[in-house]
């Protein structure tokens, strides 16, 4: 429907992704993942690599296609219909690859990024700790620098691909100065699976099964100094950059809920009640109207964020956070509507709507909860409106009685406002 927004090359990628999900991944594979009979979908990643669909945004020399976010959006929207675990396995090279591509050395790109995009290695990202995920900068996993290597100790949890990955991108504390600023405490390390790295497939997840989510424990793991990504204590910079693909992939993946909606549309065209197809009832078809409108609005927001990143817009954090929050909430609403349209059968395993609903719930929690998205959105917007560069017409100047407007503030407030100067009002 919206292919006109994509270039011919991006349309081609979308078609390739659509063909991939139809031809390569069997329903049996998805069912086995949901039953935890598959614990990591390695062959899925290998098949994607064979078709050169991984890491579309990265340079061709490392196996990417040198494309932009709009291409990745188009591909994820197709691939995400396989469920959140496979959507995540598809997105992980984009997330881990971002850090290596932006901050890694030539050697790191050759050793880790290239084989990852070729399907020869698989990676996971380890940020969250048992003490909490939202307060990321409070991480307690530590790496002590001892000459030419670090000694890594600590624990991470909820790591997708803990089971299955060959290497891990791990944030850890390296600066132990008690008054170190939070942005100057952490470093980012590439850690190979090996001695001292313990993983455990865990949790009895509600959805997103089969993606290898588990716990990681590091006990005196020796990590060569050359595996440091970016600067020592410079993890914050990598984190902020990585949060773009982290949240964009969550947002764009949520658009895949078109699959659940389309199922409900087909079902409601066949199912009859009181002598006619249920789609003829406004209570049903308005749910369809609401759902597709929400999805299109989410798609528009994701596309705007994608364009902003591709065009080097300087501060994309608000748009990316809005896209993540709105698209994940929309997916949740859409899948609930789809279930409602299907009635009782939607609540059974007869149709995979219940699996889609379990998947959709996660998207509002991971990659930064939607409450954290709200924190970021309001922060960025206050900064924009109160910026000295704000050059729009000020609506308060059009008040009917400016004196009354002034009286909204105390004398003390007015003094403070005047002292701050005109640009800070
Ligand atoms: C299936 C699954 C897969 C995951 N995959 C990965 C992975 O691959 N790698 C990884 O590192 N992590 C992963 N995560 C972790 C995920 O990102 C975190 O669960 C998430 O960031 C929230 O952290 P938390 O669970 O510790 O909740 P907490 O941080 O304890 O938050 C609990 C509640 O408090 C709210 N809250 C916290 N602080 C604030 C605040 N300042 N203002 C308002 N509300 C606040 C939160 O919004 C939330 O509602 C995964 C999680 C799951 C469930």
Task: List the SSEs and their pairings.
Elements: H1 8-23, H2 27-34, H3 42-50, H4 69-79, H5 84-103, H6 106-117, E1 123-126, E2 142-146, E3 149-159, E4 167-173, E5 186-192, E6 197-201, E7 214-224, E8 228-229, H7 235-254, H8 258-270, E9 272-273, E10 276-277, H9 282-310, H10 317-342, H11 353-363, H12 370-385, H13 402-406, H14 411-420
Parallel strand pairs: 1-4
Antiparallel strand pairs: 2-3, 3-7, 4-5, 5-8, 6-7, 9-10
Helix pairs in contact: 1-4, 4-7, 5-6, 5-7, 7-10, 8-9, 8-10, 9-10, 10-11, 10-12
The protein binds flavin-adenine dinucleotide.
Q: Can you walk through the features of this model?
A:
By secondary structure, the protein is an alpha+beta fold. It has three domains: 3-121, Butyryl-Coa Dehydrogenase, subunit A, domain 1 (Orthogonal Bundle), CATH 1.10.540.10; 126-233, Butyryl-CoA Dehydrogenase, subunit A, domain 2 (Beta Barrel), CATH 2.40.110; 238-385, Butyryl-CoA Dehydrogenase, subunit A, domain 3. Helix content is 48%, strand content 13%. The protein has 14 helices and ten strands. It has helices at 8-23, 27-34, 42-50, 69-79, 84-103, 106-117, 235-254, 258-270, 282-310, 317-342, 353-363, 370-385, 402-406, 411-420; strands at residues 123-126, 142-146, 149-159, 167-173, 186-192, 197-201, 214-224, 228-229, 272-273, 276-277. The strands form three sheets. A four-stranded mixed sheet has the order 1-4-5-8. Strands 2-3-7-6 form a four-stranded antiparallel sheet, with no helix packed on it. The protein is globular. The mean pLDDT is 96. Bound molecules: flavin-adenine dinucleotide. Flavin-adenine dinucleotide is lined by residues 124-128, 132-134, 158-160, 205, 208, 213, 362, 365-369, 371-372, 375.
